[in-house]
Structure prediction request, 607 residues.
Amino acid sequence: MSISGPKNSTAIPERKDVSTELKWRLEDIYASDTLWEADMARLQEKLPELTSFQGRLGASARNLLDGLNLLNEIDEMAAKVGVYARMRKDEDNTDPKYQGMYERAASLAVQVMSAAAFIRPELLAVEDNVLEEYMASNPELELYRQFLRNTSRMRAHTLSASEERIVAMAGEVGLAIPAIFTMLNNADLKFASIEDEEGRTVELTKGRYIKYMQSPDRRVRKDAYDALYSSYRALINTIGSTYAASVKGDAFNARVRNYGSCLETALDRNNIPVEVYGNLLEAVRSRLDLMHRYITLRKKALDLDKVHMYDIYAPIVPDIDWPVTYEEAKKTVCEGLAPLGDEYVAVLKKGLESGWVDVVESRGKTSGAYSWGEYGSHPFVLLNWQDNLDNMFTLAHEMGHAMHSHYSWTTQPYVYSDYSIFLAEVASTANEVLLMRHLLGLTEDPVRRMYLLNHLLEQFRGTLYRQTLFAEFEKITHEMFEAGQALTPDVFNDIYTKLNRDYYGDEIVLDDNIAIEWARIPHFYRAFYVYQYATGFSAAVALAEGILGHGAPARERYIQFLSGGSSKYPIDLLAHAGVDMTSPDPVHRALDVFEEALEEMETHFEG
Prediction:
């Protein structure tokens, strides 16, 4: 069954015209909006009960248990009303009813955070030996051991109540820095028009940029590239000052919180050892020769005298006709994930047929794709399906998130039901790797095979190499400021140009534009975040290859990993699954896969 819409029609359907089997079933959260209203009222009523623990939470084991139990109950209810309202709004963003419900849920979430603000300071005021005595005297508190342990380890980085209030007020000022960049980047920046492949004048936008960078017409690629960067260049001093201020804010937080560096501050949120970051950079740097070979391959495959940065996104293998309907994709994804075991595939199939997925685009629906949900129900996936191969990989990716949530939610108590951002992309990417291996095993047609390998190599370039380059840029800029050196646009440009030379090699022409690419990366305003894309990708490839190579034992460890939630620190959960991110080995194992795919493509184009 194709779900592209009525024959000979490209009209986007109204929500009411989409068949039920292609919609998610939010009734599994609330059977009616009336029940949602009832929970909103109950939640509001419970907030005074929570604040009644203020000043006495740590006074006894009983108080501590009752307070934490109530906090969990309120958190779970707040998540439930918020998730439902947001996903109803996402069905049709023009519906004022669900816009209003979403705004009310968001407002109540702020009230919940405010009511719970006393809990962490009061927990930190209870010494570890007293907490141990409480847990010994009341075994029910054992449930919260990891939660209390994780809270207690922040004691050395927590200030007095009055100092915390001052830092919080300073934090409000600090939030202005990313807000300024967001307004510049999304509202104020305008881009010149260019001519497309047909000679039509089209307005360049950030959303259209990658489309034009993937154009087979080199003139279109260059024009889009130049138009984009000319706009950033016009504001480079403003953006440079904004990013420098962001780095200074990170350094302020590190000093105030008694950390040795900005990097240590960021990684400690998830208890990630600093050597994980260093291992990633060192491992990728030791294999930059592979990226240099990939650039050489691009030069040959695209028949270019010189490779410019605007040639990086041009497909080595032109788009091919490879239609995939949603029904075909469901079947193929389930087959590709068979190495994860019968139980995994049975749950996956049930989810695909039981209202987990909202499949097709409809008028007013939120664009893109995501997986979300809440603890008391099953996960949900939003898609905007198109009949192509990329959408099949998106389905595998989002169902990876959904299955991670399913296993965590059905195994862990609520307090440990969510998983760390450090782990967020592991299960989704592992699914993509397994699907890719499955398709490569089935595909003999040389053109289709090269298309798949190009897709895989681009994943490595964009997620492992590119994000590591970003991570290295962040590390250098923060260390420079910590050493007392000035941060200016020229300094940023020099750092970024050198990194691109190192990563892409001598075969690529580095023009003036690439020097200012740092100026358009929003993630830089959330310090030391992007490295997690690279580590997550590496861990996922290592896990998927381990499952394919070692069968049942590796599969069982992987399912245990999916079931772990936040019951242990993310590094420990990965280690139990067979991936030690405190060593460079997982990154090298992932890059071995890159090298294998690269060699096959090199052989093909040499022939």
